[in-house]
Task: inverse folding
DNA sequence: GTCTATACTGAGATAGAC
DNA sequence: GTCTATCTCAGTATAGAC
């Protein structure tokens, strides 16, 4: 039922727009009443994100199970182990992503989800012994790396998600290792491996 | 008027709770009608964040005006130049922060604001010549550093905001420079300057 | 400033699974 | 019988249209 409601919502939000769609219409398309919709989802936005709790669970599990590495190494390892997406999944996720980016209310909810995910990763790192004041920074960096890779992947990159993720982590390493100088003009003799694409 | 509405909202949201407060009550306490409230703010949440656009503007201006440094150096310099807060401001901001953290709806809006701020910083970096795929990572890291410092500051730390901010940036440097090893057990001979507090 | 659509909530009734 | 899912009905408050 949740799946039916989610499919109905994505369809209507996409073709008619989020704010020109009522919850009653979503429910009707799924074959239930509005009240039933609200038994399954707390509000009009949450349908679109159904199933993301599972993603968060597997992510924290991957962090917990990663071998001993540097802090960012743990995240790189954990996120890479989840990067086995197929092309069919990509189409569905790209559709979801289009609906979300087209709708301020859904973007807001997505931002909240990202914060929540970051806190979950911070907690998972803490359980491995990483102090919070470092873990929160690592988690925020790691999640942004993941977001960027996902953005590029959904954008239609010809490269695999795993490759995009690895590149993004490499850029993060660059960032603090001192390689990423500011531009204009090219800094003091240091080569700038900034542009890869 | 916006200030009166904001003060009224923060007072009622704090003492009675956000969802037990109606916009009509907020308006009444500020001495206007509900309609007038919605002339100044687009929804029930936005009052709490009145004035944050100015913060974003001064932040992007500081990024634009920072000297040539490493990527994170630019953000460190820019954010530090804004770190002149007094104790009176701290009390007011701590009160706002308490109301926000107590209310899911307001936390969600805050998350959206953070995303927006991060994008603004990314844009400001791009105008300096930083390619987006690096700038977005740097901005996300920098904003998280800023958030952590602010959190500690509002939490009642005896140290100055500038000092907390500097420490947080130092931790970020540690993160990728290889200093931040995972814990349990202590890694191969490398000293671990993890715990400072 | 008035009016209305609609997101959301609560209580109670019904129906089917077990 | 209990438990769970759904529907019906009656509201309130936000937000937007006029």
Result:
């Amino acid at each position: 039922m949740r799946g039916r409601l989610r499919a109905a919502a994505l369809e209507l939000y996409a073709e008619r727009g989020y704010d020109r769609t009522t919850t009653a219409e979503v429910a009707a398309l799924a074959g239930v009443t509005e009240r039933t919709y609200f038994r399954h989802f707390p509000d009009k936005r949450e349908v679109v994100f159904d199933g993301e709790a599972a993603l968060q669970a597997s992510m924290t599990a991957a962090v917990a199970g990663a071998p001993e590495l540097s802090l960012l190494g743990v995240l790189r390892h954990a996120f890479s182990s989840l990067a086995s997406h197929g092309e069919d999944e990509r189409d569905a996720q790209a559709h979801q992503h289009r609906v979300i980016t087209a709708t301020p209310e859904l973007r807001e909810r997505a931002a909240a989800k990202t914060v929540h995910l970051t806190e979950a990763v911070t907690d998972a790192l803490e359980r491995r012994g990483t102090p919070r004041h470092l873990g929160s920074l690592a988690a925020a960096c790691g999640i942004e790396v993941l977001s960027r890779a996902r953005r590029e992947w959904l954008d239609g990159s010809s490269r695999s998600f795993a490759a995009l993720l690895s590149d993004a982590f490499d850029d993060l390493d660059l960032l603090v290792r001192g390689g990423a100088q500011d531009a204009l003009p090219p800094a003091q003799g240091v080569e700038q491996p900034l542009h890869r694409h």
Summary: Residues 56 and 116 of chain A are 9 Å apart (CA to CA).
